[in-house]
Amino acid sequence: MARPGETSEPMPEITPEMIRITLRALESKGMVKYAEGGAYVPTESGWKLLSEVKSVKEEIIAHGHPSIDATNLRAIFITKAGEAKENGVVAVRANKSPKDFKKEIKDALKEARKIEITIEAEGVTDKIIGYGSPALKLSSSEEIAIRKDDFIDGKTVIILADKAANELDQELIEKLRKENTKVKITFEVK
Q1: Distance, CA of 183 to CA of 117 (rounded, Å)
Q2: pTM for this predicted structure
Q3: What span, in angstroms and rounded, lies between the C-alpha atoms of 97 and 1?
Q4: Which of 79, 102, 186, 188 is the most core-located residue (most Cβ within 10 A)?
Q5: Bridge-partner residues for 59, per DSSP?
Q6: Which residues lie below 8 Å from residue 29, measured CB to CB, with a gap of 6+?
């Protein structure tokens, strides 16, 4: 459900046929089996795989700045620069860029898994959900991009995000516009 002033794009419809195809593929790999009562349940190897999938996190510390306008309709940017030079920048003086990320998070981002991004400043938090991609380059040494579309360049870390800068909580944006406000951005690959 969208908050007042926000638009909510519909999620793609998951059809019964899509579910059947997925379950057949998992069954053919020995990951699930059809059980009594008409339900698919994980096999021993399926449970083992599920228990091995762990959450991976990367935390970035950045700062607010009066030049932050957070008006971009398609992306959110976090920069190492000292000020926001383009719309959509929500934090400056970041301590990391995609190039600085740990190998573990880079690998997880390239597995096209679901990612939850949390932006927190002075006790106000907002969350963004998006996805990684095997095509991610993660090569920028200056800026991080979280994108609503599937455009990928060296600064792209997340694609198909559910929010752009203009959709972030307005109270959070006000905090981000204060110079030197500490901003914590957490990327958690689920």
Answers
A1: 13
A2: 0.74
A3: 32
A4: 79
A5: 186
A6: none
What does DSSP assign to residue 30? Answer: T
84 in Cβ contact with 67 (< 8 Å): yes
Q: Are strands 156-158 and 143-147 parallel, antiparallel or unpaired?
A: parallel
Could you read off the pLDDT of 50-86 as tens digits, one per residue? 666 678 999 999 999 999 989 999 999 999 999 998 8
What are the structural domains, with CATH classification, of the chain? Answer: 16-52 (no CATH), 56-189 (2.60.120.630)
**Amino acid sitting at position 74:** R
Backbone phi, psi, residue 79, to 5°? -125, 155
The backbone torsions φ and ψ at residue 21, rounded to the nearest 5 degrees and listed phi first, read: -60, -45
User: What is d(CA 27, CA 175) in angstroms, rounded to the nearest whole number?
Assistant: 50
Question: Helix, strand, coil proportions of the chain in percent (round to 5)?
Answer: 20, 30, 45
Residues 31 and 40: their CA atoms lie apart, in Å, by 10
Token pair belonging to 160: 């198909």
